[in-house]
UniProtKB/TrEMBL annotation:
Keywords: FAD, Flavoprotein, Membrane, Oxidoreductase, Transmembrane, Transmembrane helix
GO cellular component labels: plasma membrane
TM region positions: 91-114
Gene3D superfamilies: Acyl-CoA dehydrogenase/oxidase, N-terminal domain, Butyryl-CoA Dehydrogenase, subunit A, domain 2, Butyryl-CoA Dehydrogenase, subunit A, domain 3
InterPro entries: Acyl-CoA_Oxase/DH_mid-dom, Acyl-CoA_Oxase/DH_mid-dom_sf, AcylCo_DH-like_C, AcylCo_DH/oxidase_C, AcylCoA_DH/ox_N_sf, AcylCoA_DH/oxidase_NM_dom_sf
UniProt organism field: Candidatus Desulfacyla euxinica
Protein's name according to its UniProt entry: Acyl-CoA dehydrogenase
Co-factor requirement: FAD
Single GO molecular function: acyl-CoA dehydrogenase activity
């Protein structure tokens, strides 16, 4: 069994022909293009017009991103988080730049599908059908994450219309987006936030430049007295504010799968290179440290996939009474993207010079992979968010019906109606302990349980004081320790659903135990840690994963080394 996607033996998670066709046509598009052109376009930073044309011709964004209500009877259309995750992984497998075009289209559509403006929604559906791409115009150059300081504005005119002025920076697809959901403030005395729609072709829309050096287009554009009517207004006041955060919530969940796709392609290249390279008369993959790196990389990659898959069930099942996704989402964003960076580092240490070569996918991935953890909230921002749930998660569990794997053909409409972004501390979670207990026969899961118990003691009896809360060198590793528990919980839930072999689970928890100990060491060594906190950390970090060499070799041979030659992109 291969846990990684293999485009040439592609198995979609989706049960319907329409979705499968979307995936298969996309594979064919890239394999027909071939690796030589893919990399040449990347290296020459050529805007991917052929890809945008392909997406339009096959109505792919229309199918993936139009809720049924606006689909005009096209049965392939729905907004399905599981399907969009799968598609993100596939696009990023061929290049993060292609994924980015999809990602910012998703973001651009967020404030539209959340809007009460029916005309704008119908227009978006029509444009999607015609093959349009979209953009999300939130950021401004000098304000970064501080959207309170937004300067773009609408000034009312006597006839009830407005003119928009201001400048946006870092706006993906801003060179060709038919609808740019643009955030501004209304200068009518209220200073209300508003989302309104702009179009790149209008003469009052000045496309200034691509801010980055890449084939994707991350625009800087300016609006000069851009005329706006009621038809262009998507939202106002608190609704507009919530639309920003709720749209980022949707987009954020799409980033983990992209990192996974990148790491998968790199894995194939790396193992096939190393397994066929002979140094000093031996295969490179026979060197113990090389084997260790591949094992670690593969186990981390499988864990990323298991976590992401399971969290999408919670995402799809979200409702106003079940907001657990609000924790699982930043955990995906922070953890999966950082794990992907680790995977690339591990592989690069093995393939060394090969990873620089311009005819490898790897060299492109090595440059791009550090992006996902930083955008739509840095690691820091996501960990601070995650920590808000810690007390509720550990000390106030609630009963929920079990959430089944969700591959239904439903629209995930709650995502466009998430409501207020407040009250995170009140969100409750099902008890994490039973799924760990159910796997405690596996020595490394049992070890991990011990670490959790000590960590829980630390939080309960020696939690951070106010100063430590404000100090990232303390709060970040603390948040990491919490998130690794959440990560482990959902991984275990998914292993049951996929019937993953105990050998693999136990080896995954080998690295999880090591990571847990590593974060404890960071707190232990922190200047501001108190003695009582150090005692808890010392206990955690002295716990060792349980070695099982026979099991390690079994997983290596059956799953990891077996990927030598499994996939190579068409030249
Ligand atoms: C390639 C690329 C594509 C992008 N695409 C888009 C797009 O399509 N649309 C769009 O609107 N934007 C886009 N962005 C902008 C992106 O979302 C910004 O990174 C974001 O607005 C944050 O701004 P900043 O990176 O300048 O960081 P800043 O906001 O300047 O943050 C600086 C530091 O402050 C910290 N910080 C900020 N806020 C907090 C907080 N609340 N709590 C704790 N720490 C905090 C951060 O961790 C960070 O370390 C893109 C950016 C890039 C580079």
């Amino acid at each position: 069994m291969n846990f990684l996607i293999q485009p040439k033996k592609y198995k979609s998670l989706m049960a319907d022909d329409g979705s499968r066709a979307v995936m298969e046509k996309t594979v064919d598009f890239f394999e027909d293009m071939g690796k030589t052109q893919l990399l040449d376009d990347y290296n020459k930073k050529i805007w991917y017009k052929e890809f945008v044309d392909f997406i339009g011709k096959e109505q792919i964004f229309a199918k993936l991103l139009t809720p049924k209500k606006y689909a005009d009877g096209d049965e392939d259309c729905r907004w399905d988080t599981a399907r969009n995750s799968e598609y993100s992984e596939l696009l990023a497998f061929y290049g993060l730049g292609y994924w980015y075009c999809f990602q910012v289209t998703i973001l651009g559509l967020g404030p539209i599908w959340m809007s009460p403006n029916e005309k704008a929604k119908k227009k978006a559906a029509r444009l999607l059908k015609e093959g349009a791409i979209f953009a999300f115009g939130l950021s401004e150059r000098t304000h970064g994450a501080d959207i309170y300081s937004t300067e773009t504005n609408l000034t009312p005119k006597d006839d009830g219309t407005w003119v928009a002025n201001g400048e946006k920076y870092y706006i993906g697809n801003g060179n060709e987006a038919e609808m740019v959901s643009t955030l501004g403030k209304i200068k009518d005395g209220t200073d209300d936030y508003t989302y309104f729609v702009t179009n790149y072709q209008h003469k009052a829309y000045e496309l200034k430049k691509n801010v980055i050096s890449h084939q994707e287009y991350v625009s800087n554009f300016a609006l000069h007295d851009y005329p706006i009517t009621e038809d262009d207004i998507l939202s106002r006041g608190p609704h507009a504010w919530d639309s920003s955060l709720n749209t980022v919530n949707i987009g954020k969940f799409n980033i983990g799968p992209a990192s996974i796709g990148v790491a998968e392609h790199c894995f194939y290249e790396a193992i096939t290179h190393a397994a066929n390279r002979i140094l000093y008369g031996m295969r490179v993959t026979d060197m113990p440290h090389v084997r260790k790196n591949f094992m670690d990389a593969w186990l981390r990659l499988v864990a990323m996939k298991l976590y992401q898959r399971r969290s999408s069930d919670y995402f799809r099942g979200a409702s106003e009474n079940d907001r657990r996704y609000l924790l699982y989402n930043p955990t995906s964003k922070m953890k999966v993207t950082l794990q992907a960076e680790d995977v690339i580092n591990l592989l690069w240490d093995v393939i060394a010079a090969k990873g620089f070569e311009k005819d490898t996918y790897f060299h492109m991935a090595a440059a791009d992979i550090r992006g996902p953890s930083k955008l739509e909230g840095t690691v820091h921002v996501n960990i601070q968010l995650i920590r808000k749930f810690m007390k509720s998660y550990f000390f106030n569990p609630a009963e929920y019906e079990p959430v089944a794997p969700d591959f239904s053909f439903n629209d995930d409409l709650f995502l466009f109606n998430q409501g207020s972004t407040k009250g995170l501390g009140k969100v409750r979670f099902h008890d994490y302990a039973p799924v760990f207990e159910a796997n405690k026969d596996l020595p490394n899961v049992a070890t991990f349980i011990k670490q959790i118990e000590i960590f829980k003691g630390l939080v309960e009896k020696a939690g951070p004081d106010k100063m430590q809360d404000m100090d990232p060198s303390f709060s970040l590793p603390l948040g990491e320790m919490f998130s690794i528990v959440v990560y482990g919980q959902l991984i275990l839930e998914q292993t049951k659903l996929e019937d993953v072999e105990p050998d693999i689970i136990n080896q995954i928890f080998d690295f999880m135990v090591r990571d847990f100990a590593g974060f404890a060491l960071q707190i232990y060594g922190n200047h501001s840690s108190r003695d009582e906190q150090r005692l808890f950390c010392k206990e955690i970090m002295l716990i060792k994963a349980v070695a099982d060499d026979a099991q390690y070799q079994r997983v290596w041979g059956k799953y990891v080394f077996a990927l030598d030659g499994e996939y190579a992109m068409n030249e």
